[in-house]
Give the backbone structure.
Amino acid sequence: MGDSFDDRSKGWTASEEEVIRDETAEVIASEHHKLGLPAAISLIVGNIVGTGVFLLPASLAAYGTVGILAMALVSIGAIALAVVFGRLGRRVPAGGGPYAYAKDAFGEFPGFWNAWSFWLTAWIGNAAIAVVWVNYVNYFLHWDSAGAQMALALVALWIPALVNLSGVRNIGAFAIVTTVLKFIPLIFVGVVGLFFVRGGDFGPFNATGGNWIGALSTAGALTLFIYSGVESVTIAAERIKDPARNIGRASVYGVLICAAMYMLSTVAVFGTVPHRALTASSAPFADSINNMFGGSVGGGIMAACAIVSGIGAINGWTMLVAEMPMAAARDGLFPGVFARESRRGVPWVGIVSGTALTSLVTLYNYFGTTNGFNKILLIATFTTVIPYFFSACAQLFWLVTGARAVSGARLGRDLAVTSVAILFAFWMTYGAGMEAIFIGFLMLLVGIPIYIWTKAKRGEYGPGHEALTPPSGRAP
Amino acid sequence: MGLSTREKRALGEIADRLHAEDPALAHSLMSFATGVITSEILPSRRRLLPVALLGVAMAVMAVALPVIAGTGHGAAPAAPTPPRG
């Protein structure tokens, strides 16, 4: 620092200096409790890589190596989406991310619909992670009764909730630790596995028996959602240091890291596990490790990795399940109770209510019907896409209306990237499937009464009798 | 978005007061509604072309994706669960 505080404060009165010192201390304390670039990247990577990745190579193997090509195409779309989120985060570095972008570009109602849609996604999706997490824990514990599994699921949900309630710094630390721990085995398989690859293990390019374009399309639909969470940092923008700069960097770096990990590990698993065995595998990464080094320790290592990965993902998504409604509640577009912050500066109502709702959905899995649980999960599949589509369209809106001061080659480049992001989000919507779109859209409609309720409570339209007393000489 | 009753009433009161206190200014301001009402630059057709092309691309995708996948409109792909990587 070139000049000291005392030097700059010459000429001010003692009380003015005290006020300035207090304000400076508040700013420093506030910044101190925010997430830096490494924590922001960890939040994105931690949220993108949950528990689904551990089965992905086996699912793709059913289509042949065309599945790797499909993943590469999806990765390009996800990178475009990350770039768009980076641009949006620079333009509107406000909490709520997609909510703020849709509201700024299209108005209050689209903004609310994005917040509502994301809120559903966040707490319903956590139930899916928790149930898969319990399966990995049971690799070691073998607690097979429904009650015991429910108890484990509650541990998976409420430990991250407690971490979230303890403050932003702890959320960031938890995200960094779990992301590093989950990444080491995955990247190990991806890099070291390349040295054990056998060409004959890859299997056919197209294993479906149909045409390869159809196989590419269907395999692509399977991988469309592997980058869900790319928007994480935009939603928690208020918790990020220097958001105008770091949102873009964290979004792009986070997705690039995940893309490298996905591609490397999938190629390595394809090349170390014979195709026929891979299509039937329930633990492809474990099979890959066992084939590389012999023995059977791979299962335990990857189960432990999945446990860390799952609870890390729930930690990050629990943060978002509260941050999004808080941003909307501050604008009077979500029930005001969601805007309340605890002494530690976290939106405790959103954290507790979101985790409670996730617990109820999880309860339904163990004590209701599995089919019903899967139907609930479909809601999250469709509602994931809404914020992506609206955000990319908001960027396009600003580009073509000239609200963003870009022109020439840069405008062309931005338009191209934004168009790829929009088409990718559109493909994701198709990939969600007919049933998911049907149920998800019904749940979007459920949000409209909430919108009416919160908007009416703002009191802007006044009590009914005001409309009967217009100002003199003018119609209301 | 339409103005609320309260906002309309507040604007009406401002207009009434302006008419009463400075009729000349009120008359001058009224002329704004008869000419060009904005000084913002409207997007040119050239800038809107990508939007039109994007709409066409989305329409093509909506029709082509089910055909390419060989499933037809009645059977979109099964949703991946869980929906996160």
